[in-house]
Amino acid sequence: MFEKCENFFFSCVENTNREIKKIFQVNKDIDFISLHTKKQIIGKGRKLNKWISKEGDFTCSYLINKSFKISMLGQLNIIISISILECLKRYYPNINFYLKWPNDILIDDKKIGGVLIETNISKGVITHLVVGIGINFVSNPTLENYKTAKILDFTNKIDTVKIFHCLSKKIKDNIVLWNEKNFTSFKKKWMKSCKDIGNEVLIKMGGKHFIGVLKEIDDSALLVLKTKNNNIIKVSYGDII
Questions:
Q1: What pLDDT, on a 0 to 100 scale, did the predictor assign at position 32?
Q2: Which of 74, 88, 103, 201 is paired with 156 by a 20 to 30 Å CA distance?
Q3: 241/237 Cα distance (integer angstroms)
Q4: What CATH code is assigned to 200-240?
Q5: Does domain 5-193 have CATH number 3.30.930.10?
């Protein structure tokens, strides 16, 4: 499935997603592009939020040059999150990593990382997508909305390049596994690693708010909430606040 793959390493780039798209423009025969940089000047998060990082933090992007149905994007998002979790647990087995919907990485209740997926869509099909990943290794911003942490708070064992190579392989392997089998195993892994399962949560989706017990994610990776009135609400995007 991924026959031609290339890795790119930089000392500094303005933005990893932007840089990997430039590389793809002149290398459209590559199935999977991985890009690692020591420093990113203008980090970008979901909803145009700024991602703050310093040299030594994990900043990378992966471009997947494969076609997917738009309806598969939710599942892909879960698979990427699971891939990150598996690599972090491989190198840091004694740290309590968790996942928060839709794609935050936590240590206990503190955010250490996130994912930004950008898609290229043509004729109703995703032709390729870029996965930007940021993880706090040596620094963590002070934010009003939520607590943050960094890997350095828990260990001095810092090697972002090893994590980069691990993720490159893990994302490809998990996509192949998903393609050959189904989403069930990833769904189970995500639910096991999500601290909010079984708890009451507040979901912000656009201008709307929903309160309910987070029951699961369904087979389309939609978040399933049960309200106090026993109504079932399925959420495709938004934030747990």
A1: 99
A2: 103
A3: 13
A4: 2.30.30.100
A5: yes
The answer to whether 139 and 54 are in contact (CB under 8 A) is yes
Work out the end-to-end distance of the chain between its first and last CA atoms, rounded to an integer number of angstroms. Answer: 38
CB-side neighbour CA atoms (13 Å) of 43: 26
Cβ-contact 134, 150 below 8 angstroms: no
Give the 3-state DSSP-derived string for the chain, with helices as H, strands as E and coil as C.
CCCCEEEEEEEEECCHHHHHHHHHHCCCCCCEEEEEEEEECCEECHHHCEECCCECEEEEEEEECCCEEHHHHHHHHHHHHHHHHHHHHHHCCCCCEEEECCCEEEECCEEEEEEEEEEEEECCEEEEEEEEEEECCCCCCCCCCCCECCHHHCCCCCCHHHHHHHHHHHHHHHHHHHHHCCCHHHHHHHHHHECCCCCEEEEEECCEEEEEEEEEECCCCCEEEECCCCCEEEECCCEEC
CB 168 within 8 A of CB 174: no
User: What six digits make up the tokens of 160?
Assistant: 């972002």
What pLDDT score does 17 carry? 95
Give me the pLDDT at residue 187, please. Answer: 96
Q: Which segments in the chain show pLDDT lower than 70?
A: 43-52
The C-alpha atoms of residue 7 and residue 160 are separated, in whole angstroms, by 14
